[in-house]
Design goal:
Number of strands: 7
Helix content: 10-25%
Order of helices and strands: HHEEEEEEE
Number of helices: 2
Low-confidence stretches: 33-42
Distance between the termini: 67 Å
Oligomer: single chain
Largest sheet: 4 strands, antiparallel
CATH class of the domain at 39-102: Mainly Beta
Shape: elongated
Strand order of the largest sheet: 4-5-6-7
Radius of gyration: 21 Å
CATH topology of the domain at 39-102: SH3 type barrels
Strand content: 25-35%
Length: 107
């Protein structure tokens, strides 16, 4: 009898583990990217944030912080402006923009 319960518990735990692998993280902010895109794969670009101070311009692209003039995933960051970043990748100029719901103006 105890053996049957042990088998049932084991099967239940296996099914929960298998089903949980397809779930997304409910605490992850909306508009965030998957782990595969965060790795900086070439050709997959998502602008997450920009920050402009009197001394430095930086952006978060695919979850990685990069400064103006820096490199990310084989591309060079040409220009960072409010809500937009210009990249050069494989001879092409790409313009990344924040989604309107992500744009916040500083005080």
């Amino acid at each position: 009898m105890i053996r049957h319960y042990a088998v049932l518990v084991a099967l239940f735990l296996i099914s929960v583990t298998v089903n949980a692998s397809g779930l997304s993280d409910p605490t992850r902010p909306s508009g965030s990217i998957s782990a595969s895109a965060e790795s900086g794969a070439v050709g997959v670009w998502r602008l997450n944030a920009t920050r402009i101070t009197p001394t430095q311009r930086s952006a978060v692209i695919n979850g990685i912080k990069v400064a103006e003039g820096g490199d990310i995933g084989g591309a060079r960051v040409l220009r960072i402006s409010h809500a937009q970043v210009q990249l050069q990748s494989q001879g092409e100029i790409l313009n990344l923009q924040l989604q309107p719901t992500q744009v916040k103006k500083s005080r």
